[in-house]
Design goal:
Length: about 140
């Protein structure tokens, strides 16, 4: 069973066949599918699954905090099941491929006090951009 399925079950989330197949599609490392990509993959396993069901299921998973919505450069939102492990993203500026990365250091500590403008900073999102090996 996938980590995502285990987390959803532990929360008591009712596991219908449609919800299960969406969670299974999202299982794996460096998964950042759009809702349409999730639907296409889910439909290969469960042909009767509707696009609306996939969108609703993804929305519920995001609301539960079990999946992260990732938006980069105005492209379609992508869904990341790596919600409980601190990480940043590396994005290809050409094709949009996204990889999870785990840089060393603390981005919060890197922001000088003068640049905080009195904010009590609680989190930071860093996105690294460049060209992937296929686009280089």
């Amino acid at each position: 069973m996938s980590d995502l399925l285990e987390r959803l079950r532990a929360r008591g989330w009712r596991m219908t066949s449609q919800r299960r197949v969406v969670a299974e599609v999202l299982d794996g490392d460096h998964v950042h599918f759009t809702a349409d990509e999730v639907h296409a993959r889910a439909a290969q396993r469960l042909p009767e699954i509707s696009r609306a069901t996939v969108y609703n299921t993804l929305g519920e998973m995001v609301s539960l905090g079990e999946v992260i919505e990732v938006s980069t450069d105005g492209r379609a939102k992508r869904y990341d099941p790596n919600a409980h492990h601190a990480h940043q993203h590396l994005v290809c500026s050409n094709c949009g491929t996204i990889r999870d990365v785990h840089p060393t250091g603390d981005p919060l500590a890197d922001l000088p006090a003068v640049e905080r403008f009195g904010f009590q900073v609680s989190e930071a999102e860093v996105t690294y951009r460049g060209l992937c090996p296929s686009c280089s």
